[in-house]
Structure formats: structure tokens, C-alpha cells
Write a structure and sequence with these properties.
Elements (H helix, E strand, L loop, with lengths): L1 H33 L2 H7 L10 E10 L5 E12 L5 E9 L7 E6 L7 E6 L4 E4 L16 H5 L4 H4 E11 L2 E10 L7 E7 L4 E8 L5 E8 L2 E2 L5 E2 L2 E6 L4 E12 L9 H4 L3
Antiparallel strand pairs: 1-2, 1-15, 2-3, 3-4, 4-5, 5-6, 7-8, 8-9, 9-10, 10-11, 11-14, 12-13, 14-15
């Protein structure tokens, strides 16, 4: 009888553990199902190329509609202040005709005005990118100034609706539809957000007549030196023009970056 009672207790214990596991799994699923589009956007840390603070060497490849490519090498510096301000500097290293060109972006939190500054050696001076230029293409790429600098404020500038969940490149994703509140070159944007990490892995941009105009896709996600997720490759495709811009992260380095990199004065340094 003792042995039978012990078996019964063991069976009930096993069943209890199994039921608890099911409940935990179900509660996680319910939580995911209850998340609103706004709550998902709130969890997205950044749309920048490099997460956290550090530097990276990247290859930026522009491809025309005939498939001809031009390769550029850039150095990227990035930092995030305690108040949430994000700063990024892009500097062209090669080829020679664009070497020394720099793009500085300062993205302030809570929808405050952001700044983007461009320095071109041929002109010998920097200029601030005006608000009406933010959505124009940067240096012959398929990225706008907002997109390449990570200053696009999807939370503040777009209304959001959650669509049916989907998968992209093997990742279970939330899908959001974002509609601009003010003037924009896009009528709406669709965003696939990796559920486990709240990282946008694919974005579709729709223009006049709700036609697909551009797509952004990422691949090769891995942890960097700061234990932050980053992609190995980012591809922005202009569906209308038939062009493509590919960004490959060649190497990264974590750690704090000196504030002098993120000043207008540094832009002029040769």
C-alpha cells in the first residue's frame, strides 16, 4: 500500500508540474496577444544601425537598376546619453572621392527636435539638414537622412495598428501598420517586429496610391560586444527605381565613445 501511495503522489506531482508549465506557456501567449501596437513600439529600443554605444566599420554598397555596384567603406560611432539622447557619426573612409564626408545626427528623446549635420570636404564646411530634406535620399543611397541616421520617430509621428502576427526569416513577428500623423512621403508603413527581442526585422514603405515603394530587410542577427543584438546585413530596396543599398557590418567595438566625435567642430577635422 505504501508503494502504491508513493506512486500516486509521484504521479500527481508530475501532473502538477506539467499543468504549471502549460499555464506559464498560456499566460505568455495571452500576454503577447494582449499587447497593443503602441506597447510594442514602446519596447523597440532603436532603429539605428548599431545598438548601444561603440563603433563599427561598415561596407555600404549601392546597386543601380542594371545590377552595377559601388562599394564604400565607412566608420560608424554611436553613443546614448543618460537622458536618452542618441548620437551617431558616419564617416566615409573610401573611395577617395568621398573620403572625409561626415554625417552627424543627434536624436533627442520624447519627440524633441533632432539635428542632422552633413560635412563635405569639397565644400569645406558643414550644413544642417533642414526639416524638409529629412526624407530625401542620402549620398545616392536608398536611405533617407532620417533612416540612415536612425532619427525617424515612428512612435511620435505615426499612428499604429496591430495586424495579424506573421513570420519573417524564421522569426515569429508582430506586424504593425503605421500611418503618418503629418506630411510624409509614405501613406503607411508595415513593420515586422521580432517577438522575442522587439527588434524590427523587416519594414515595407507604401507611397501614393498605397503602392509599395521601398523595403528594408535585415539578416544575420547576433549579439555585439555590449550584448546588444545587431544585424550582419541590412538591405534597403527602392522597388520603383529598381535600386538597392546594402550595408554589411564588418567589425564592431563596444565601449564609450568620446563626446568630441559628436560635435560640429569634429566634422571639420581632416
Amino acid at each position: 500500500m505504501k508503494l502504491q501511495s508513493q506512486k500516486v503522489r509521484t504521479l500527481w506531482t508530475t501532473l502538477g508540474v506539467f499543468v504549471m508549465c502549460i499555464l506559464v506557456m498560456l499566460s505568455g501567449s495571452v500576454h503577447a496577444a494582449e499587447l497593443t501596437a503602441r506597447e510594442i513600439l514602446d519596447e523597440i529600443e532603436s532603429m539605428a544601425l548599431l545598438a548601444g554605444s561603440g563603433s563599427a566599420k561598415i561596407e555600404l554598397i549601392t546597386e543601380n537598376k542594371r545590377g552595377q555596384q559601388r562599394s564604400n567603406t565607412l566608420q560608424l560611432y554611436r553613443t546614448k546619453d543618460d537622458d536618452g539622447t542618441e548620437k551617431q557619426l558616419l564617416e566615409y573612409l573610401q573611395p577617395a572621392d568621398v573620403a572625409g564626408t561626415k554625417l552627424l545626427s543627434i536624436t533627442r528623446s520624447e519627440g524633441k527636435d533632432s539635428e542632422i549635420w552633413l560635412f563635405m570636404p569639397a565644400l569645406g564646411k558643414e550644413r544642417r539638414i533642414a526639416a524638409q530634406e529629412m526624407q530625401t535620399k542620402f549620398m545616392g543611397t536608398d536611405f533617407t537622412y532620417e533612416e540612415i541616421s536612425g532619427t525617424a520617430a515612428y512612435k511620435e509621428d505615426f499612428d499604429s495598428v496591430r495586424l495579424e502576427d506573421d513570420t519573417f526569416d524564421g522569426y515569429a513577428c508582430y506586424v504593425l501598420e503605421l500611418t503618418p500623423k503629418g506630411k510624409s512621403e509614405y501613406t503607411f508603413v508595415k513593420m515586422w517586429v521580432w517577438q522575442d527581442e522587439f527588434i524590427p526585422v523587416k519594414v515595407e514603405f507604401y507611397g501614393r496610391g498605397d503602392k509599395l515603394t521601398k523595403t528594408l530587410e535585415t539578416s544575420g542577427w547576433k549579439k555585439n560586444a555590449e550584448d546588444k543584438w545587431e544585424p550582419s546585413e541590412v538591405v534597403m530596396s527602392d522597388v520603383v527605381a529598381g535600386t538597392k543599398t546594402i550595408i554589411k557590418i564588418m567589425e564592431t567595438s563596444g565601449g564609450e565613445i568620446s563626446d568630441e566625435y559628436f560635435t560640429v567642430r569634429y566634422l571639420r577635422r581632416r
